[in-house]
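Whether sequence alone determines local backbone shape is best considered at the level of individual chains. In the encoding step, the backbone of a single protein was reduced to a row of integers, each denoting a local shape. For completeness, the protein is quoted in full, as a sequence line and a line of structure tokens.
***
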Amino acid sequence: MNKPPYARELKVCLCHTCGFVCPEGAHECPRCYSPVHTRKPNSIARTWAFLLASIIFYVPANVLPVMYTSMFSGGSENTIMSGVIEFWQHGSWDIAILIFIASVAVPCMKFCVLGTLLITCQRRSRWAMRERAKLYRFVELIGYWSMLDVLVVALVAALVQFRALSTIEPRLGILFFGLVVVLTMLSAMSFDPRLIWDAEVNDVE
């Protein structure tokens, strides 16, 4: 079965902004006037920078408290994991699972997937290229739900204060977690998935 031709073989390139097919060598999209590149400039370096920064910020996001709870018997500060455990012990297992998935499982999975994509692209590996492309699309998809944990904390705080049972206030850890979310989204946006398929050709720009 013949492989479909590459864009460079057809002497065309794609606009990253509007998807218009531009002639090879064009510096500006004729439809939206955005800069045109055959590959995103410095894609791997920028993706590594955002990814490493997000991993660094993920440490204080888990170590520092994300919220302060003040009840009739006193107050306490909770990290992400201690908050998950507390919700679970009080019977709110659905909120505990939601926070665990959004705050622990999803970020760690994004770290692993993006790191794997970067290493394999740098090594020009032909290993599971189709599956790696699907992984990248999956990371892009879940990126839209990455702020779910922050929204859950805000929703719980609003509900608790509405019932006048206690007071919940955000703490510094939630700021670091928000930075992790933004940096991982920027990392995924900086990565050029076409680099996955460049291992099949020899003359890569």
Summary: The longest strand covers residues 67-71. Helices lie at 43-63, 80-89, 93-122, 129-143, 148-162, 172-190. The mean pLDDT is 78.
